[in-house]
Amino acid sequence: MKKVLTLALCALMALSAVLVGCGETNTSVKFGAGVYTGAPTATDATDDKDGSGKIDVTAAAVTVDADGKIVACALDTASNTVNFTADGKALANDEFKTKYEMGADYNMVAYGGAAKEWFEQADAFEVLVAGKTLDEVKALVAEGSKGTDEVISAGCTIMINEFVGAIEKAYNAASAEVSADAALKVSIATEQTLTDATEEKDGSNKVAVNVFASATDADGKVLAASSDCAEVTFTFDAEGASTLDTTKAIATKREQGASYGMVAYGGAAKEWFEQADAFDAACIGKTASEIAGLMGEDGKGVADLQTAGCTIYVSGFVKAATK
After folding, report:
1. What is the mean pLDDT of residues 242-264?
2. Which residue in 3, 164, 209, 276 is a FRET match for 144, CA 20 to 30 A apart?
3. What is the CA radius of gyration of the chain?
Protein backbone atom coordinates (compact mmCIF):
# COMPACT_ATOMS: atom_id res chain seq x y z
CA MET A 1 0.00 0.00 0.00
CA LYS A 2 2.84 2.38 0.94
CA LYS A 3 4.47 1.76 -2.44
CA VAL A 4 1.20 2.45 -4.25
CA LEU A 5 0.76 5.73 -2.36
CA THR A 6 4.31 6.75 -3.17
CA LEU A 7 3.80 6.06 -6.87
CA ALA A 8 0.53 7.97 -6.84
CA LEU A 9 2.18 10.93 -5.12
CA CYS A 10 5.00 10.95 -7.68
CA ALA A 11 2.48 10.87 -10.52
CA LEU A 12 0.56 13.77 -8.98
CA MET A 13 3.73 15.83 -8.59
CA ALA A 14 4.69 15.16 -12.20
CA LEU A 15 1.24 16.18 -13.41
CA SER A 16 1.43 19.35 -11.33
CA ALA A 17 4.78 20.21 -12.86
CA VAL A 18 3.32 19.76 -16.34
CA LEU A 19 0.33 21.94 -15.52
CA VAL A 20 2.51 24.66 -14.01
CA GLY A 21 4.76 24.52 -17.05
CA CYS A 22 1.78 24.91 -19.36
CA GLY A 23 0.64 27.94 -17.41
CA GLU A 24 4.00 29.72 -17.57
CA THR A 25 4.37 32.69 -19.90
CA ASN A 26 7.40 33.85 -21.75
CA THR A 27 8.50 37.04 -19.97
CA SER A 28 11.11 38.03 -22.52
CA VAL A 29 10.42 40.76 -25.08
CA LYS A 30 12.43 42.30 -27.91
CA PHE A 31 14.13 45.68 -27.56
CA GLY A 32 14.59 48.14 -30.41
CA ALA A 33 15.52 51.79 -30.93
CA GLY A 34 14.95 54.26 -33.73
CA VAL A 35 15.79 57.85 -34.65
CA TYR A 36 13.58 60.03 -36.83
CA THR A 37 15.22 63.15 -38.23
CA GLY A 38 13.04 65.94 -39.58
CA ALA A 39 13.98 68.14 -42.51
CA PRO A 40 16.43 70.91 -41.52
CA THR A 41 15.45 74.54 -41.92
CA ALA A 42 17.67 77.61 -42.25
CA THR A 43 17.34 81.38 -42.51
CA ASP A 44 19.80 84.03 -43.66
CA ALA A 45 21.27 86.55 -41.27
CA THR A 46 20.41 90.24 -41.64
CA ASP A 47 21.74 93.39 -40.03
CA ASP A 48 18.90 93.15 -37.51
CA LYS A 49 18.75 89.42 -36.87
CA ASP A 50 21.12 86.46 -36.72
CA GLY A 51 20.75 83.67 -39.22
CA SER A 52 19.70 80.27 -37.95
CA GLY A 53 19.62 76.57 -38.61
CA LYS A 54 17.17 74.18 -36.97
CA ILE A 55 16.90 70.39 -36.82
CA ASP A 56 14.46 68.16 -34.92
CA VAL A 57 15.64 64.70 -33.90
CA THR A 58 13.17 62.32 -32.24
CA ALA A 59 14.34 59.15 -30.52
CA ALA A 60 12.26 56.14 -29.49
CA ALA A 61 12.88 52.91 -27.64
CA VAL A 62 10.32 50.10 -27.56
CA THR A 63 9.88 46.58 -26.33
CA VAL A 64 7.71 44.23 -28.39
CA ASP A 65 6.08 40.97 -27.28
CA ALA A 66 5.68 37.71 -29.18
CA ASP A 67 2.34 38.88 -30.57
CA GLY A 68 3.90 41.96 -32.13
CA LYS A 69 2.41 44.32 -29.58
CA ILE A 70 4.36 47.15 -27.98
CA VAL A 71 4.91 46.49 -24.28
CA ALA A 72 6.59 49.78 -23.39
CA CYS A 73 7.82 52.91 -25.15
CA ALA A 74 10.14 55.83 -24.35
CA LEU A 75 10.33 59.05 -26.39
CA ASP A 76 12.22 62.33 -26.52
CA THR A 77 12.97 65.07 -29.07
CA ALA A 78 15.92 67.39 -29.48
CA SER A 79 14.81 70.54 -31.29
CA ASN A 80 18.14 72.28 -31.82
CA THR A 81 18.55 75.79 -33.22
CA VAL A 82 21.99 77.28 -33.89
CA ASN A 83 22.89 80.76 -35.11
CA PHE A 84 25.37 82.77 -37.17
CA THR A 85 25.84 86.48 -37.78
CA ALA A 86 25.59 88.73 -40.81
CA ASP A 87 29.40 88.91 -40.94
CA GLY A 88 29.78 85.13 -41.05
CA LYS A 89 30.52 84.33 -37.41
CA ALA A 90 29.27 81.06 -35.92
CA LEU A 91 27.64 81.47 -32.51
CA ALA A 92 27.93 78.97 -29.68
CA ASN A 93 24.88 77.79 -27.72
CA ASP A 94 25.01 77.97 -23.95
CA GLU A 95 23.48 74.50 -23.74
CA PHE A 96 21.25 72.05 -25.57
CA LYS A 97 18.24 70.59 -23.79
CA THR A 98 15.70 68.15 -25.17
CA LYS A 99 12.01 68.93 -25.00
CA TYR A 100 11.62 66.39 -22.20
CA GLU A 101 14.53 67.85 -20.25
CA MET A 102 13.02 71.33 -20.48
CA GLY A 103 9.99 70.14 -18.51
CA ALA A 104 7.62 72.95 -17.59
CA ASP A 105 10.10 75.48 -19.04
CA TYR A 106 9.02 74.41 -22.53
CA ASN A 107 6.05 76.67 -21.75
CA MET A 108 3.28 75.03 -23.74
CA VAL A 109 0.94 75.70 -20.82
CA ALA A 110 2.09 79.19 -19.87
CA TYR A 111 2.34 80.66 -23.35
CA GLY A 112 0.70 78.18 -25.71
CA GLY A 113 -2.57 77.67 -23.89
CA ALA A 114 -2.10 73.89 -23.77
CA ALA A 115 -3.67 71.81 -21.02
CA LYS A 116 -0.48 69.78 -20.57
CA GLU A 117 3.23 70.37 -21.06
CA TRP A 118 5.19 68.66 -23.83
CA PHE A 119 6.70 66.04 -21.53
CA GLU A 120 3.28 65.19 -20.12
CA GLN A 121 1.88 64.79 -23.63
CA ALA A 122 4.80 62.56 -24.60
CA ASP A 123 4.14 60.47 -21.48
CA ALA A 124 0.48 60.17 -22.47
CA PHE A 125 1.40 58.95 -25.93
CA GLU A 126 3.85 56.39 -24.52
CA VAL A 127 1.07 54.96 -22.37
CA LEU A 128 -1.39 54.96 -25.26
CA VAL A 129 0.79 52.93 -27.65
CA ALA A 130 1.39 50.15 -25.11
CA GLY A 131 -0.58 47.10 -26.20
CA LYS A 132 -0.80 48.21 -29.83
CA THR A 133 0.76 46.75 -32.95
CA LEU A 134 2.78 48.93 -35.31
CA ASP A 135 -0.14 49.21 -37.74
CA GLU A 136 -2.40 50.36 -34.91
CA VAL A 137 0.15 52.97 -33.85
CA LYS A 138 0.50 54.28 -37.41
CA ALA A 139 -3.29 54.57 -37.62
CA LEU A 140 -3.22 57.07 -34.74
CA VAL A 141 -1.90 59.83 -37.05
CA ALA A 142 -4.67 62.08 -38.34
CA GLU A 143 -4.83 65.08 -40.64
CA GLY A 144 -2.20 67.72 -40.02
CA SER A 145 0.10 65.18 -38.33
CA LYS A 146 -1.88 65.43 -35.11
CA GLY A 147 -3.46 62.45 -33.41
CA THR A 148 -6.89 60.91 -33.77
CA ASP A 149 -9.63 61.52 -31.24
CA GLU A 150 -8.23 58.59 -29.24
CA VAL A 151 -4.86 60.34 -28.97
CA ILE A 152 -6.37 63.72 -28.08
CA SER A 153 -8.61 62.14 -25.46
CA ALA A 154 -5.54 60.50 -23.93
CA GLY A 155 -4.03 63.94 -23.37
CA CYS A 156 -1.74 64.30 -26.38
CA THR A 157 -2.73 67.23 -28.59
CA ILE A 158 0.65 67.92 -30.23
CA MET A 159 1.73 66.65 -33.64
CA ILE A 160 2.70 62.98 -33.38
CA ASN A 161 4.03 62.11 -36.84
CA GLU A 162 7.66 62.24 -35.70
CA PHE A 163 6.86 60.12 -32.63
CA VAL A 164 5.30 57.52 -34.90
CA GLY A 165 8.20 57.71 -37.36
CA ALA A 166 10.70 57.00 -34.59
CA ILE A 167 8.54 54.25 -33.12
CA GLU A 168 8.26 52.56 -36.52
CA LYS A 169 12.05 52.48 -36.86
CA ALA A 170 12.45 51.19 -33.31
CA TYR A 171 9.78 48.53 -33.81
CA ASN A 172 11.39 47.26 -37.01
CA ALA A 173 14.81 47.16 -35.32
CA ALA A 174 13.60 45.20 -32.27
CA SER A 175 15.75 42.08 -31.91
CA ALA A 176 17.63 41.96 -28.59
CA GLU A 177 15.78 39.93 -25.96
CA VAL A 178 15.28 41.54 -22.55
CA SER A 179 13.01 41.02 -19.57
CA ALA A 180 9.48 42.34 -19.98
CA ASP A 181 9.90 44.45 -16.84
CA ALA A 182 13.04 46.18 -18.09
CA ALA A 183 13.01 49.98 -17.86
CA LEU A 184 13.29 51.83 -21.17
CA LYS A 185 15.29 55.02 -21.49
CA VAL A 186 16.24 57.35 -24.35
CA SER A 187 18.71 60.17 -23.89
CA ILE A 188 20.12 62.76 -26.27
CA ALA A 189 23.31 64.79 -26.00
CA THR A 190 24.21 67.42 -28.60
CA GLU A 191 27.78 68.46 -29.39
CA GLN A 192 28.58 71.62 -31.36
CA THR A 193 31.52 72.52 -33.63
CA LEU A 194 32.02 76.08 -34.92
CA THR A 195 33.89 77.54 -37.90
CA ASP A 196 33.65 81.16 -38.99
CA ALA A 197 33.20 82.00 -42.68
CA THR A 198 35.87 83.72 -44.77
CA GLU A 199 35.72 85.24 -48.23
CA GLU A 200 37.22 82.02 -49.56
CA LYS A 201 35.30 79.43 -47.54
CA ASP A 202 31.87 79.00 -45.97
CA GLY A 203 31.56 78.90 -42.22
CA SER A 204 29.68 76.21 -40.35
CA ASN A 205 27.75 75.57 -37.18
CA LYS A 206 27.66 71.81 -36.85
CA VAL A 207 25.55 69.81 -34.42
CA ALA A 208 26.09 66.15 -33.67
CA VAL A 209 22.93 64.86 -31.99
CA ASN A 210 23.96 61.73 -30.11
CA VAL A 211 21.25 59.27 -29.08
CA PHE A 212 21.54 56.44 -26.56
CA ALA A 213 18.58 54.13 -26.04
CA SER A 214 18.64 51.37 -23.47
CA ALA A 215 16.76 48.77 -21.49
CA THR A 216 17.96 48.53 -17.90
CA ASP A 217 17.32 46.23 -14.96
CA ALA A 218 16.27 47.17 -11.42
CA ASP A 219 19.88 47.94 -10.52
CA GLY A 220 20.32 50.35 -13.42
CA LYS A 221 22.49 47.95 -15.39
CA VAL A 222 22.14 47.94 -19.16
CA LEU A 223 20.46 44.87 -20.66
CA ALA A 224 20.40 46.15 -24.25
CA ALA A 225 21.56 49.34 -25.91
CA SER A 226 21.59 51.20 -29.21
CA SER A 227 23.64 54.29 -30.08
CA ASP A 228 23.17 56.57 -33.07
CA CYS A 229 24.03 60.09 -34.23
CA ALA A 230 22.32 62.60 -36.51
CA GLU A 231 24.88 65.13 -37.70
CA VAL A 232 23.94 68.35 -39.49
CA THR A 233 26.37 71.02 -40.66
CA PHE A 234 24.64 74.38 -41.12
CA THR A 235 26.81 76.32 -43.58
CA PHE A 236 26.78 80.03 -44.40
CA ASP A 237 28.91 82.53 -46.29
CA ALA A 238 30.80 85.62 -45.11
CA GLU A 239 27.65 87.74 -45.51
CA GLY A 240 25.58 85.44 -43.33
CA ALA A 241 23.57 83.83 -46.12
CA SER A 242 22.70 80.18 -45.52
CA THR A 243 24.28 77.77 -48.02
CA LEU A 244 22.79 74.51 -46.71
CA ASP A 245 20.67 72.46 -49.10
CA THR A 246 17.60 72.01 -46.88
CA THR A 247 15.91 69.73 -49.42
CA LYS A 248 18.40 66.98 -48.70
CA ALA A 249 17.18 64.40 -46.19
CA ILE A 250 19.32 63.75 -43.12
CA ALA A 251 20.16 60.10 -42.48
CA THR A 252 21.71 59.13 -39.16
CA LYS A 253 25.20 57.67 -39.14
CA ARG A 254 23.79 54.23 -38.34
CA GLU A 255 21.29 54.49 -41.20
CA GLN A 256 24.06 55.39 -43.63
CA GLY A 257 25.71 52.02 -43.03
CA ALA A 258 28.73 51.34 -45.22
CA SER A 259 28.04 54.47 -47.28
CA TYR A 260 29.29 56.55 -44.34
CA GLY A 261 32.68 55.76 -45.80
CA MET A 262 34.95 55.25 -42.79
CA VAL A 263 36.41 52.12 -44.33
CA ALA A 264 36.46 53.20 -47.97
CA TYR A 265 37.75 56.74 -47.43
CA GLY A 266 39.00 56.95 -43.86
CA GLY A 267 41.10 53.81 -43.69
CA ALA A 268 39.21 52.49 -40.67
CA ALA A 269 39.00 48.78 -39.96
CA LYS A 270 35.27 48.99 -39.22
CA GLU A 271 32.41 51.23 -40.31
CA TRP A 272 30.77 53.73 -37.96
CA PHE A 273 27.73 51.54 -37.24
CA GLU A 274 30.00 48.58 -36.43
CA GLN A 275 32.02 50.70 -34.04
CA ALA A 276 28.80 51.93 -32.43
CA ASP A 277 27.75 48.29 -32.05
CA ALA A 278 31.04 47.60 -30.25
CA PHE A 279 30.35 50.48 -27.86
CA ASP A 280 26.81 49.24 -27.22
CA ALA A 281 28.09 45.73 -26.51
CA ALA A 282 30.60 47.13 -24.01
CA CYS A 283 27.73 48.85 -22.14
CA ILE A 284 25.91 45.60 -21.41
CA GLY A 285 25.90 44.87 -17.69
CA LYS A 286 27.19 48.34 -16.81
CA THR A 287 25.70 51.24 -14.87
CA ALA A 288 25.93 54.87 -16.02
CA SER A 289 29.06 55.53 -13.96
CA GLU A 290 30.72 52.41 -15.37
CA ILE A 291 29.87 53.51 -18.92
CA ALA A 292 31.58 56.84 -18.19
CA GLY A 293 34.70 54.81 -17.46
CA LEU A 294 34.78 53.58 -21.07
CA MET A 295 36.13 56.97 -22.23
CA GLY A 296 39.71 58.10 -21.93
CA GLU A 297 40.96 61.65 -21.42
CA ASP A 298 41.32 62.15 -25.19
CA GLY A 299 37.61 61.48 -25.79
CA LYS A 300 38.28 58.12 -27.38
CA GLY A 301 37.58 54.76 -25.81
CA VAL A 302 39.84 53.08 -23.29
CA ALA A 303 42.21 50.39 -24.55
CA ASP A 304 39.75 47.53 -24.02
CA LEU A 305 37.04 49.33 -25.98
CA GLN A 306 39.40 50.08 -28.86
CA THR A 307 40.50 46.45 -28.91
CA ALA A 308 36.81 45.48 -29.08
CA GLY A 309 36.51 47.47 -32.31
CA CYS A 310 35.49 51.00 -31.28
CA THR A 311 38.33 53.37 -32.21
CA ILE A 312 36.26 56.52 -32.87
CA TYR A 313 35.65 59.33 -30.40
CA VAL A 314 33.04 58.18 -27.87
CA SER A 315 32.45 61.44 -25.97
CA GLY A 316 29.02 61.91 -27.56
CA PHE A 317 28.04 58.31 -26.83
CA VAL A 318 29.13 58.63 -23.20
CA LYS A 319 27.42 62.01 -22.69
CA ALA A 320 24.14 60.59 -23.95
CA ALA A 321 24.46 57.28 -22.10
CA THR A 322 25.31 58.83 -18.74
CA LYS A 323 22.27 61.11 -18.98
Report:
1. 96
2. 209
3. 24
